[in-house]
Amino acid sequence: MALPNFNVYLILLLLVLLVNSGSAHNYEEALSKAILFFEGQRSGFLPQDQRQNWRANSGLGDGWTYSVDLTGGYYDAGDNIKFGFPMAFTTTMLAWSVIEFGDMMPPNEHRNALVAIRWATDYLLKTVSQPNRIFVQVGDPISDHNCWERPEDMDTSRTVYAVDAPNSASDVAGETAAALAASSMAFRSSDPGYSETLLRNAVEAFRFADTYRGAYSDNPNVRIGVCPYYCDFDGYQDELLWGAAWLRRATQDENFLDYIQSNGKTLGAEDNINEFGWDNKHAGLNVLVSKEVLEGNVLSLESYKTSAESFLCTLIPETSSSHIEYTPGGLIYRPGGSNLQHAASIAFLELVYANYLSRTSQTINCGNIYVNAQTLRQRAKKQVDYILGDNPMGMSYMVGYGNKYPQRIHHRGSSLPSIKDHPQFIACKEGSIYFNSTNPNPNVLVGAIVGGPGEDDVYDDDRADFRKSEPTTYINAPFVGILAYFVANPNP
Predict the structure, then answer these.
(1) β-pairing, 364-365 with 160-164?
(2) 380 by DSSP, 3-state: which?
(3) What is the 3-state secondary structure (H, E, C) of 290-328?
(4) Using CA atoms, how far apart are residues 190 and 419, in angstroms rounded to an integer?
(5) Distance from C-alpha of 451 to C-alpha of 340, rounded to nearest angstrom
(6) Are 428 and 140 in contact (CB under 8 A)?
(7) How does pLDDT run across 431-465, given as a tens digit for each residue?
(8) Rounded to 10 degrees, what is the CA torsion of 422, 52, 27, 405?
(9) 77 contacts 469 by C-beta, under 8 angstroms
(10) Which one-letter DSSP state was computed for residue 436?
(11) Are 268 and 308 in contact (CB under 8 A)?
């Protein structure tokens, strides 16, 4: 008589396994690949241990018009430009990933993450190497975007864009200060000398940002190169607070604490608090500063904590303040393209804040309900699992992860034959046949996370649709920290 019950039990068990099988992701593999992606974005002289080995040296003359070495750094996305603003933000987020979640990374991936950070910081140090000047970009985007060309073949204009005092670049200099300060913390134990160099330069970059206040894209000679791609659309004030907040975290200097206390109102700390990305730092700033309130009881910063929790409450559909948009499949959605940058950066903030809450056994009062650390972690996990394949398309949006992933990403180096296989020069317009081809890209940019599906969860795998098919460094950077958390805690 027990046999039918046993069969029922088996069927139920199989159903549970089927339901859960979609979420059984290999977070360690995904983490490794998310970091590996950055090697495909490298500019400059590539080292012997380069693992994305279809790439080769590029941009070796960068900076020559100023008689300065500006080689190195990262191309931001699928083009061959080095945009300083998003590169600095990418660096801050990679460093924050290591600071918050580095101890959860397997040792070899922790090393790889530091290598990825250093490739950026070595370049950023060059951009602030001259007094009262910051180099904000290398490469003319108009000529670059008119070509479909491998970085190794680049013959487009490598215009250098610089801002000299008393002209302003508070946004880029402030973000560079944040990047160098955060990175100094990431390197503190493994390379104290380098850490000190980063911190010293962070202080100088912040001084430039704060002394000559204004947006870098308001300079006419810079605007023509950075807009409309990475204009400062949301103002420079958030980068001043963000840079000061990271310097406070890195130095524990009371002067930086005073700065974020006394300038919060005048620099608009309570404006646009529901945004976080390469242009708008408010939500990240509020989460970062909240650590001192939650863990150190610095009540003078309470307004930052209030703003952080107000933002986090908007992400929870059950709360009375919920107003964020989700796709039918459950992905955070913001219009404008490259949507996965929002899903990744917001999930990152949820995990960081959850850490702060759990260390102090606190919850968030969202009006009609209380939200705890576990809820934030579970919500972050849904975004991560969606990106890795638990979505209506059944597609991983990380290239090279899973059985089904984008094959035709909007990326010059990936879509053109490797210089190793086709050493002959491929000129500007000769690359168009590869851009227009319906064939999969010949070089797999392992770990690249694309812009992602539309608000209907649909992804067409179309190289020309750059809003969906182009990867960027600032999508991957927060994802590194997220994946590190889930390697250690796969079922929060």
Answers:
(1) unpaired
(2) helix
(3) HHHHHHHCCHHHHHHHHHHHHHHHHCCCCCCCCCCCECC
(4) 35
(5) 5
(6) no
(7) 999 999 999 999 999 999 999 999 999 999 999 99
(8) -10
(9) no
(10) H
(11) no
Residue 25, token pair as written in the block: 């992701």
CA–CA separation, 228 vs 222, rounded Å?
A: 11
The string of pLDDT tens digits covering residues 371-419 is 999 999 999 999 999 999 999 999 999 999 999 999 999 999 999 999 9
Report the candidate in 207, 118, 219 with the shortest Cα–Cα distance to residue 168. 219
* Mean pLDDT value across the chain: 93
Residue 145, both tokens: 């975007």
Name the pairing type of β-strands 364-365 and 370-371. antiparallel
Split at pLDDT 50, 70, 90, the class of 7 is: low
Residue 266, CA distances (Å) to 51, 206, 259, 263, 269 in order: 47, 17, 11, 5, 8
* Residues designated catalytic: 79, 410, 461, 470
Within 341-462, strands assigned E span 364-365, 370-371
Does the pLDDT of residue 23 top 70, yes or no?
A: no
* Cα–Cα distance measured from residue 362 to residue 312, given in angstroms and rounded to the nearest whole number: 14
Q: Which two tokens stand for residue 179?
A: 């990047």
Q: With 50 as the cut, is the pLDDT of residue 34 above it?
A: yes
CB-based contact 478:113 (threshold 8 Å): no
Phi–psi pair at 381, nearest 5 degrees: -60, -35
Average pLDDT over residues 201-218: 98
Burial 91-125 (b: 16+ CB within 10 A, else e): bbbbbbbbbbbbebbeeebbebbbebbbbbbebbb
Rounded mean pLDDT, 163-191: 98
Reading the block at residue 480, the tokens are 């590194």
Structure-block tokens of residue 218? 């308001």
Mean pLDDT of 56-80: 97
